[in-house]
Design a protein that fits this description.
The complex is a heterodimer of chains A (412) and B (143). With 412 residues, chain A is mainly alpha-helical. Chain A contains 22 helices and three strands. A three-stranded antiparallel beta sheet of chain A has the order 1-3-2. In chain A, β2 (93-96) and β3 form a beta hairpin. In chain B, β1 (89-90), α3 and β2 form a beta-alpha-beta unit. Classes of the chains: A mainly alpha (412), B mainly alpha (143).
Chain lengths: 412, 143
């Protein structure tokens, strides 16, 4: 009989600690959402490198919330320590109302520790290091005017800020929501961790979802704002850029931006360090590591832990829907302003600039540039806009980092 | 100025719609001006340093050209007579394209292709593939 009672108690204990008792309806909805995201990542291949770990992190935290639990200290009396088999030796003692309590530290969940790289703003700059190693700034150096398009596409960030603050978000939250318009995942995460860490899950998921949807969101806006004649413009070939110019570029940019806008220095600094690794040609091994192994490791940690911030209680709120809607506005506005400035350049250059390259001013490298190329080829199959669009595209990375610096400075 | 943030100075709950509008306009104006100013400045800097580098490289090229002229060397070399080198001995079954690729790879390793001459081409007896050898070489190269 005693054995049977013990067995029943054990089963009851397991049941009580299982997810069947501890999880609520919000967790179950988020499990469903994460499975949809996994489907999109695997079957539709929407930004799978990030969407897959994000979706799995989301799944994990909603199945087992303690995986993101912070470490804490529980106070136990000597009797409780004995009951729970906790050793009292070496534990600090606190006396409250004449009773001795032993401070028993409990450890945090696995993802809590990995999340510190996000919380402390370490992962996004490291991702930028890898991006720098993979980026060729040649088209931008050959045609520096494309930086204007990279700047124009950032206007969406500030316009969305207005929408967010009008809806009742705080200035800091509005800044974090607006940065979705930069279409730059690491920048969005970096700014959000500094301005509104409690919105990280919603903002990161909105940012990466829209980046994955660039080929669907951008073309209608591009076509609506341009004429057939403008879209068919064939641009002149870019001049070749010497190695010395490419080596000097990251050094000059980092000096300039770090002095003028120190808040953007961590992102721009690491981006330019990575680019110098690549262009100098003397540290090939480091360059390879930064753009492959290091970036892959950071992507796993970043994606999984960002996904793990989207627990049911945090994510299923009205403000998440508002953020997702505002993110779309930010993205669309960034694209629209880029194209409109492209049209201005078309007019001022006497029809030499194809305005479609303006939409690539939102970062989303290199997907946004590919979209410019594809829409251009639909009008003129012999038109190759890719290299011309890469200029504004990489300018967008610098532009969104500068915009991030402005937001951190003004509302941070 | 103290280090208080905006929300500490103006708690959000106390912001009226007008104050929110003012704050939004302030951010838009600051963002617009700073982003464009920084990137315009960057355009200027890129243009200046690119112009300097192109000019220096042109000057160096012209100097070299002048030196060659002064030495009496023809700027455009007359096509030299084809050098008659014996054709490499090629093992049966190796296609001409492979010989061409091997020749190009060997030539690319030397500053002057004339320094290299292929005497024969035969299949390697090694059991390890060329890719495996390249991988080993890549991973065992000293620092």
């Amino acid at each position: 009989m005693e054995i049977l009672n013990g067995f029943v108690e054990a089963i009851q204990g397991i049941f009580q600690s299982s997810g069947l008792v501890s999880l609520n309806w919000q967790n179950y909805i988020m499990i469903g959402v994460s499975i949809v995201l996994l489907y999109l990542a695997i079957k539709k291949q929407y930004e799978p490198l990030l969407l897959l770990p994000i979706a799995f992190g989301m799944l994990l935290v909603n199945l087992y919330p303690e995986i993101m639990a912070a470490p804490s200290t529980e106070l136990l009396t000597a009797q409780q320590c004995a009951e729970h088999g906790v050793a009292t030796a070496g534990h600090a003692v606190r006396i409250i109302d004449g009773i001795e309590y032993y401070e028993n530290p409990t450890y945090g969940g696995l993802l809590y520790y990995l999340y510190q790289g996000v919380k402390l703003g370490i992962y996004p700059p490291l991702i930028f290091l890898g991006i720098g190693c993979m980026t060729d700034f040649g088209p931008l150096i050959a045609n520096p005017k494309s930086l204007i398009l990279g700047a124009a596409a950032q206007i969406g960030i500030f316009v969305t800020f207005t929408g967010a603050i009008t809806l009742g978000f705080t200035p800091a939250e509005s800044g974090a929501i607006g940065i979705i318009g930069g279409a730059d995942g690491p920048t969005a995460i970096y700014v959000t961790t500094k301005l509104a860490p409690h919105l990280l899950g919603s903002i990161a998921i909105a940012a990466y979802s829209y980046m994955a949807l660039v080929p669907i969101i951008q073309p209608p806006i591009m076509k609506a704002l341009t004429t057939k004649k403008e879209r068919a413009v064939v641009m002149e070939q870019l001049r070749p850029v010497s190695k010395l110019e490419k080596i000097m570029f990251p050094v000059i940019v980092v000096i300039l931006i770090a002095i003028l806008l120190p808040d953007a220095a961590p992102l721009v600094g690491m981006l330019m360090l990575g680019n110098l690794f690549k262009e100098s040609g003397v540290v090939e091994r480091i360059s390879k590591t930064a753009q492959n192994e290091l970036m892959n490791i950071i992507t796993i940690f970043l994606g999984t832990t960002v996904g793990a911030t989207a627990s049911g209680q945090n994510f299923l709120r009205l403000e998440t829907i508002e953020i997702i809607a505002l993110g779309l506005v930010a993205f669309a506005m960034g694209t629209a302003f880029g194209v409109l400035f492209g049209k201005l350049m078309y007019k001022f250059s006497g029809g030499k600039v194809n305005p479609l390259i303006g939409s690539a001013g939102v970062s989303a490298v290199p997907m946004a540039a590919r979209v410019s190329q594809r829409v251009g080829q639909q009008e003129n199959p012999g038109n190759f806009l890719l290299m011309h669009a890469m200029g504004p595209n990489v300018a967008g990375v610098i532009g969104s980092a500068v915009a991030a610096g402005v937001l951190l400075n003004v509302v941070g | 100025m103290s280090n208080l943030s905006f929300t500490e100075i103006f708690p959000v709950a106390e912001l009226t719609m007008a104050q929110r509008g003012i704050e939004a306009l302030k951010v838009i104006l600051t963002g617009f001006v700073v982003v464009f100013a920084v990137l315009f400045f960057l355009i200027l800097i890129i243009k200046i340093y690119s112009a300097i580098i192109v000019k220096l490289q042109d000057a160096a090229f012209n100097k070299k050209k002048k030196k060659l002229k002064d030495n009496g060397e023809a700027l455009i070399k007359k096509p030299s007579k084809p050098v008659s080198t014996p054709a490499p001995v090629v093992q049966d079954g190796i296609p001409e394209e492979v010989i061409a690729v091997i020749s190009a790879a060997v030539a690319s390793m030397y500053d002057s292709p004339q320094k290299a001459r292929i005497k024969s081409v035969k299949r390697s007896a090694s059991g390890r593939s060329a890719w495996a050898n390249a991988g080993i070489a890549d991973n065992t190269r000293p620092f």
